[in-house]
Amino acid sequence: MTAWVQTVDDSLCQGEFLRECSIPAGQPEQMHEEPSVEEELVAGLIVLTHSCDLANSPLPEYVSLCSLQTLEEFRAYQPQSNTKWNNFLNSLAKGQVQGLRLLPPLNNDFESKDHFMIADYRTIFSLKYNELLSHALDLGARPKLASPYLEYFSQGLGAYFSRVGLSPDLPRWP
User: Fold this and answer.
1) What residues make up the domain containing 108?
2) In the chain, N or C: fewer CB atoms in 10 Å?
3) Which pTM does this prediction carry?
4) What are the beta bridge partners of residue 118?
5) Is residue 134 assigned to a domain?
6) Does any domain span residue 49?
């Protein structure tokens, strides 16, 4: 099954992977001001904003995205033993790691475990639609999640942000 397809559309859609996105590191001093850019971060990001919001008028001023990394890239920041790493991966594959979602490799090679991708919903970026679209068009052909992986990705985002917290004083039974 093909998890990623190439798109050259002149619009953005949910599940589209954009390489080398520039993320301003500064924060606005007041609401509605441009951030003061002290330095820029560059990262691979995947679009979170729903496709219907990106296709219908009025177009959004900002697009929500999160980081998308290979397991190999993600592991570089995880000081864990091999046993702990493997336990983490098994939990991740079962969807049991809050805020992270395991996605297939961009090259659709399911045998290459190090190239599986991790979407990190814990850090959301909002980038200007026009600038992001311009960057996407400069990239040319870009990977986009195909069904049912797109729905799986979207479901993970919904599950992370729509969690219901129950009171800790619920009774326990033996």
Assistant:
1) 13-161
2) C
3) 0.84
4) 69, 102
5) yes
6) yes
